[in-house]
Design a protein that fits this description.
Blueprint (H helix, E strand, L loop, with lengths): L1 E3 L11 H11 L8 E6 L5 E7 L6 E5 L9 H12 L3 E5 L21 H13 L5 E6 L1 H13 L7 E5 L5 H7 L6 H21 L15 H12 L5 H8 L12 E6 L20 E6 L8 E2 L7 E2 H14 L26 E2 L6
Parallel strand pairs: 1-9, 4-5, 4-6, 6-7, 7-8, 8-9
Antiparallel strand pairs: 2-3, 2-12, 3-5, 10-11
Helix pairs in contact: 7-8
């Protein structure tokens, strides 16, 4: 089902680039009482998980976007919401995104769902009666939707939310090569090249890599780095096999997708039609909102982040009212005992960015 949203952008942020850039660079980040855990993976690698909340109550897994982390403003905002509701929130850092390079030459990409699958099934096994939900932003939203489609009726979630999803990575790669959207191409590629260089200064690359500075577009980077490292023939093969769009029909978990028609990263051509969606999926569209923006409010110093209000409504509908007293704010990265839900994870609270 496709519906039109009631979101109204702030009068001073009606441009799609302004909606995208303002919260990314000017939003004040909430102070959270975070504890970090290291999850050892079956292939010998690891991911770091940052938690808020107590030791009981519903668990919401949060997936960040490309080169994001717990420090991304949207992740901090949604974790503050989860903590306020009295639930437990867990940011799953994709491999290499927690401030430390991962061990293996391979990393994460748009279609890599193994780590999400491992975490969710471990949480469900440890606490089979605890309600679980997941929220994915941008690339994390694509990973979440693809995983939901792969799992079908076996996904142990009560609900899911995906925001500003690049359903078709090829369309997104083309979109950020045009007009002012090239600023996102430049910004994200700079981070990707740095992360890649940092990793392969420490370990040997299993495939020949060009000089990273010569890679100026996503297609060039994915052709030279992402595809060969992860077993794809080339960028086109990677895009074709990693997009979530073909998996939307198979989703059985109640899922809300929040998407703007003016998204300067995803591109309107990537937005699926109603007949591509399973009955369990609601695609809520706004005319404006940018990429992970959706900023309302009367004045810049009174900005309202509609996204979190809408997510709150969805979570309350399927997880019920809060039943745990929220934790008192403390300094970031405060060392705490691991929550019971993450049994088997090695505590890595002292590791910071």
């Amino acid at each position: 089902m496709i519906t039109d949203s009631t979101f109204k952008p702030a009068w001073w942020l009606k441009n799609r680039h302004a909606q995208t850039i303002f919260p990314a660079f000017f939003r004040r980040r909430a102070k959270l009482a975070i504890r970090r855990e290291r999850l050892e993976l079956p292939d010998g690698d690891f991911v770091d998980c940052d938690w808020v909340g107590g030791d009981r109550g519903p668990i919401v897994v949060v997936l960040h976007g490309l080169e994001g982390s717990i420090d991304s403003p949207y992740a901090t905002g949604i974790m503050a919401l989860i903590e306020h509701l009295g639930w437990r929130g867990c940011v799953l850092h994709f491999r290499g995104c927690s401030g430390e390079s991962n061990r293996l030459p391979t990393g994460y990409h748009s279609g890599f769902t193994d780590d999400l699958d491992f975490l969710v099934k471990r949480l469900h096994s440890a606490e089979p009666n605890t309600p679980l939900a997941a929220i994915g932003f941008s690339l994390g939203g694509n990973v979440l939707l693809k995983w939901l489609g792969e799992q079908g009726a076996f996904a142990p979630l009560a609900t899911a939310v995906a925001v500003s999803v690049p359903f078709d990575p090829a369309t997104a790669a083309d979109t950020v090569e045009r007009g002012l959207s090239r600023i996102y191409n430049w910004y994200m590629l700079r981070s990707m090249r740095r992360s890649t260089a940092r990793k392969f200064c420490r370990i040997e690359a299993p495939v020949p890599l060009p000089k990273l500075a010569t890679l100026k577009t996503f297609r060039q980077f994915d052709d030279a780095v992402t595809a060969p490292l992860h077993g794809f023939r080339d960028a086109a093969d990677y895009y074709r096999r990693s997009g979530s769009r073909p998996f939307l029909r198979n989703i059985r978990v109640p899922t809300l997708i929040l998407q703007s028609r003016d998204d300067p990263v995803v591109g309107a051509a990537a937005i699926p039609a109603a007949d591509e969606l399973a009955p369990a999926v609601t695609l809520e569209l706004t005319d404006r909102g940018g990429h992970v923006g959706f900023v309302g409010g009367g004045w810049p110093w009174k900005a309202e982040y509609w996204l979190e209000s809408r997510v709150r409504t969805q979570l309350l509908q399927y997880l019920g009212k809060a039943n745990v007293t929220p934790m008192e704010p403390r300094s970031r990265r405060a060392a705490q005992p691991p929550p019971a839900s993450a049994a088997g994870c090695r505590d890595n609270s002292a590791a910071g960015k």
